[in-house]
Known about the structure:
By secondary structure, this protein is mainly alpha-helical. The chain has a domain at 76-162. The chain has eight helices and two strands. The chain has helices at residues 15-30, 36-39, 54-64, 66-84, 86-104, 119-137, 140-160, 170-175; strands spanning 110-112, 115-117. It has a two-stranded antiparallel sheet. A hairpin with a 2-residue loop joins strand 1 (110-112) and strand 2 (115-117). Helix 4 (66-84) packs antiparallel against helix 5.
Amino acid sequence: MAPTxxxxxxxxxxxxxxIHRSIHNLTSAISRHRPWSELVTSGAFCLPERLxxxxxxxRTNFRYFSxxxxxxxxxxxxxxxxxxxxxxxVVVGTIIALWLLFHFFREDxxxxxxxxxxxxxxxxxxxxxxxxAIWFTSSAASLAIGVGVGLxxxxxxxxxxxxxxxxxxxxxxVTGGLIGFNLR
Length: 184
């Protein structure tokens, strides 16, 4: 008896539904941000006692405040783009929205005019549109400065924010490498 192989095909989902589900995934990810008061609690700041504790502190804080840090970096980038022109902010903001909807938060295959668009094609399109947008608005340097300042703020906060009182969800801790499995 010869072994049988089964092939699975994806169910075509209209583009509007893909976008709607992507927006839902994006809003649910943003809703996981921590309260801003917890981010700036005054009694929680101190330098680590040992340099060896720094990587764990960085990982814990980045895992715990990841959505807040993304908002801080995005805000710094937006302020830097306003200095170039409001058009640059709108164009780059639109490109970022496209990346979020069609790459990072999309679960289903993209169907356009009854054809399924592959992930590589989506990535190539998003990359080319991003390069065009940054070239068109002449905002590469300003965007790099804004993102750099945002990252510097987040890294500084992550280093001096004491992470001892932060409690991660179990799944976040496992995927972040903070909890390991000891298989003996």
